[in-house]
Amino acid sequence: MTIASRREFLKAAGAAAVVAGSGRAEARTLKVPVGLELYSVREMLPKDFQGTLNQVHSAGYAVVEAAGFYNRSATDFRKAMDQAGLRCISAHYTLMLLNQQLDSIISYAKDLGLEYIICSSSDGMHRDPNAHGVPTLDDWHWRIDQFNRIGATVKSAGMTFGIHNHTPEFATIDGVLVYDEIMKRTDPKYVTLQMDCGWVYLSSHSPAEFIARDPSRFQLLHVKDMIRVPGSDEPEMPVMGKGNIDYKPILRAATHLKYYFVEQERFDGDPWVELRADADYMKNFNF
């Protein structure tokens, strides 16, 4: 099957699963605020922190997810958000940091007023701390145990813990798809799943298919557009609506969505023109 044929098949399969579950799929607009993952403006923030946040708001965003705090206290970071007219809902941390500094992370997050603490990546973490290289299925089971443990602690502090994916979560190890294990073994009471739809697409899977299995698991999404480049692991990343990802079945499936965050990882032109185009696209999106 060609890549194009596979893509169309997965789109149809995802949409069919949603329709089968709901009986019908009426066109509607998103009822959640337009969000931005601040990794998108990682090169601007160190140069003009407050000015960049002000421009994020001017570009059409209401909520953000942090990817670093630029040596600012929670009080100063929150003050800058308030001045810009933004709310910081969520923040990303690696599993290594969460294991090493969970108490201080929770304290900072509470002072900042976060609703979510998200594991951005578990790369490099093994059950055996002296191990290296590609993780085994046993390593992933150990990571999942860490997610459940951290999630219980975060919940007791009044916030929600979640897992963000890249492509390694869609590897098949010993005949087992890692993301299937994550969905099966993480405890829904303690762990939500923040699906990055772009990396799922790049892994040749259907975001809608996974979400439709259990929509309650998916409170957060990362949205971005991509075009696969034959012979390369690096996709093109155009603005929303200019790539090949069909978000209609994805958003129809995401019936428990609370927030989404646009993540424009690379820019082809003026960043603010592109970020405004992303925001406008999501504001006017019908699905």
* Percent helix range: 40-55%
**What class, by secondary structure content?**
alpha/beta
CATH class of the domain at 3-15 and 91-226 and 241-276: Alpha Beta
Q: Quaternary status of these chains?
A: single chain
In total, how many beta strands? Answer: 10
Low-confidence stretches: 1-23
CATH topology-level fold name of the domain at 3-15 and 91-226 and 241-276: TIM Barrel
Descriptive keywords:
disordered N terminus, eight-stranded parallel β-sheet, 10 strands, globular, two-stranded antiparallel ribbon, 287 residues, single chain, TIM Barrel, 15% strand, alpha/beta
Please characterize this protein's 3D structure:
The chain contains ten helices and ten strands. By secondary structure, the chain is an alpha/beta fold. It has a domain of 185 residues: Alpha-Beta Barrel (TIM Barrel), CATH 3.20.20. The strands form two sheets. It has an eight-stranded parallel beta sheet. A two-stranded antiparallel ribbon has the order 6-7. Helix 5 links the parallel strand 4 and strand 5. Helix 1 packs parallel to helix 8. The chain is globular and about 45 Å long. The N terminus is likely disordered.
